[in-house]
Amino acid sequence: MTRQNNIQLEDTATTAFIPLWDMCNHEHGKITTDYNKELNRGECYALRDFQPGEQIFIFYGARTNADLFLHNGFVYPQNQHDSLSIALGVSSSDRLREAKLGLLAKLGLAGVTHYNLYKNSNPISAELLAFIRIFNMNEEELSKWSNQSMPSDLVSSDESCSASVGLPIDRKAYSYLLTRCELVKASYKDSGSEDVSLHRKNIKLLKQCEVQILDNAIEYLRNVLEKLPAAEKS
């Protein structure tokens, strides 16, 4: 599967092996390979200047480390496109389940069961932010947002949108996700170092990369909660 490449033959897409090009390893960059219809050939341009005798790398694409490991057999710790998928959903026993699913449906998220945490400075995807806000709404809040034709503010972390969503919702939402991330992190076990096979080393490295994403998300969520204005006393 790692050596099947899409090419064009007589205007028909197919897969094939590409000698020499298939030998290039991966590094961060951009896609520099394409098919030239006029010359009827695949073309690959250098990512950067390579010195004589230096290994030539290509960019495999914006894939997570889990995808690189599954499809290509390696883990890339410097992967700027890495993310971690976490499973979240509305329980069938939740008395507000239908209202929550209805609001999620307005944002195209009714059937989504996994949400991404990213490696960058803002690790929470727009879809995940919307979910945790909706998941933590009470009946009155759900009714208010459900009456809007397109509740787009729920997917944004901009200050103006956060003000529209409301402090109580955001405080509950970010606290919920912080707890969830801490629980997921706690589920990771040290695989040990007895097995020194390449496969086991990659598994251990993949887990380390995923824990780093969780650590980054936990730090981000704690900072967000610290910056939220204190709840007003009644």
UniProtKB/TrEMBL annotation:
UniProt-listed Enzyme Commission number(s): 2.1.1.85
Sample GO molecular function, one term: protein-lysine N-methyltransferase activity
Record carries keyword Ion transport: no
GO biological process terms held by the UniProt record: methylation
Occurrences of domain Rubisco LSMT substrate-binding (ranges): 92-212
Reactions mediated catalytically: L-histidyl-[protein] + S-adenosyl-L-methionine = N(tele)-methyl-L-histidyl-[protein] + S-adenosyl-L-homocysteine + H(+)
Keyword S-adenosyl-L-methionine recorded: yes
Protein family per UniProt: Belongs to the class V-like SAM-binding methyltransferase superfamily. SETD3 actin-histidine methyltransferase family.
Designated name of the protein: protein-histidine N-methyltransferase
Organism this protein belongs to: Euphydryas editha (Edith's checkerspot)
